[in-house]
């Protein structure tokens, strides 16, 4: 569950890193490294409002994920596990494009691809961040 979640976040983060390095229509971040954009954005009231909205959206999505996948602490039975019966990690009932394969073999292949791409994205975002920290310039 944790690796899948972090992989999904890293995939979106890697894409956002690349887009943000060239496209920032709302805030003037000049040619600063992407790792410093949040520092600049949070100096304005508009940026603080956007940050609070983003944090609220993350909070509600994480609450939904916790209520969907995990047992209530009051109902926990030692040795039974903390995930709800029938819950498959990463399956939250959100598939608006209908991309989830119907067959078991195709689903397993898709899940393995997602895990591998997530692992690659975690390494990529770490590398891009480290490069900008060391050089002090934009990576792209």
* Secondary structure: helix percent: 55-70%
Number of strands: 0
Radius of gyration: 19 Å
Largest sheet: none
Quote the distance from N terminus to C terminus: 32 Å
SSE class? mainly alpha
Q: What form results from the Cα inertia axes?
A: globular
SSE pattern, N- to C-terminal: HHHH
Strand content: under 5%
Round the mean pLDDT to the nearest integer and report it.
Answer: 87
Number of helices: 4
Enumerate the spans where pLDDT stays under 50 for 5 or more consecutive residues.
none
Describe this structure in words.
With 140 residues, the protein is an all-alpha fold. It contains four helices and no strands. The protein is globular and about 50 Å long.
Topology of this protein?
Layout: H1 2-20, H2 37-41, H3 45-69, H4 104-135
Helix pairs in contact: 1-4
Give the gist of this structure.
The two termini are 32 Å apart.
Keywords:
140 residues; globular; mainly alpha
């Amino acid at each position: 569950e944790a690796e899948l979640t972090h992989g999904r976040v890293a995939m979106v983060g890697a894409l956002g890193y690349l887009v943000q390095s060239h496209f920032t229509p709302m805030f003037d971040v000049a040619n600063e490294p992407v790792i410093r954009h949040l520092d600049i954005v949070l100096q304005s009231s508009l940026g603080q409002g956007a940050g609070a909205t983003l944090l609220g959206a993350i909070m509600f999505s994480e609450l939904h994920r916790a209520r969907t996948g995990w047992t209530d602490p009051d109902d926990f039975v030692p040795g039974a596990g903390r995930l709800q019966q029938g819950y498959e990690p990463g399956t939250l009932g959100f598939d608006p494009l209908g991309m989830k394969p119907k067959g078991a073999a195709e689903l397993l292949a898709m899940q393995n691809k997602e895990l591998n791409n997530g692992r690659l994205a975690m390494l990529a975002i770490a590398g891009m961040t480290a490069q900008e920290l060391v050089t002090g310039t934009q990576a792209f």
